[in-house]
Design brief:
197 residues; Hypothetical upf0131 protein ytfp; 3-stranded antiparallel sheet; two-stranded antiparallel ribbon; 6 helices; 33% strand
């Protein structure tokens, strides 16, 4: 019964949002699977972000690539992989923040590129959402040290996954990722506040 009520509620929210969150209203859906899972993190640069709900991206896997100095470790990307699923948070943002989001994701320096993908929310509702993928995809192998995320980055993803109510088995799979033992620099930890600083 609770699933039915949640599905009906979600359908109503998305129906209303399809009217009021359309391009005419200047908003867009954003699918976050990395540090922007965490409300506190996404709102550092995108204060209009509104959590819409959890969503899954089919036929992709979560991976890590490219050491980023301020995180002191590798950052997340999605990689096409038939049969796999990446869960994330679906956010609604003002279009005026799209450039800031692109810059945060490193589009301007060629780290990621933006793409629109169909993501599915619990209850089977699918929407088109903007997301980001690394310009150079990692190979599918064990996670070598240079592709391991820092303890801080992994904690941000984990807490964001819990906060976004991602499925328990997916959250459990995040606990199997080996961190590199490093902590993000003081500036990012301070901006995130407790429990990171």
């Amino acid at each position: 019964m609770a699933l039915l009520v949640n599905t009906v509620f979600l359908f109503l929210v998305l129906s209303v949002c399809s009217i009021f969150c359309s391009d005419d209203n200047g908003t867009f859906f954003y699918f976050a699977y990395g540090s922007n899972l965490l409300d506190k993190r996404i709102k550092l640069n995108n204060p209009t972000a509104i959590f819409t709900g959890p969503a899954e991206l089919k036929d992709y896997r979560l991976d890590f690539f490219n050491y980023i100095k301020y995180w002191e470790g590798a950052v997340a990307t999605i990689v096409p992989h038939p049969g796999h699923v990446v869960w994330g948070a679906l956010w609604t943002l003002d279009k005026k923040e799209m450039d800031r989001l692109d810059k945060q994701e490193g589009v301007d320096v060629g780290l990621y590129f933006a793409l629109n993908k169909t993501v599915t929310m619990p209850g089977g509702i699918s929407v088109e959402a903007r997301t980001y993928q690394a310009t150079k995809l990692p190979s599918f192998d064990d996670l070598p040290m240079q592709r391991q995320p820092s303890n801080t980055y992994l904690q941000v993803i984990f807490l964001g996954a819990v906060e976004s109510k991602l499925p328990a088995d997916y959250i459990g799979s995040l606990l199997t990722i080996n961190p590199n033992g490093q902590f993000a620099n003081e500036t990012i930890r301070k901006s995130l506040g407790y429990p990171f600083y």
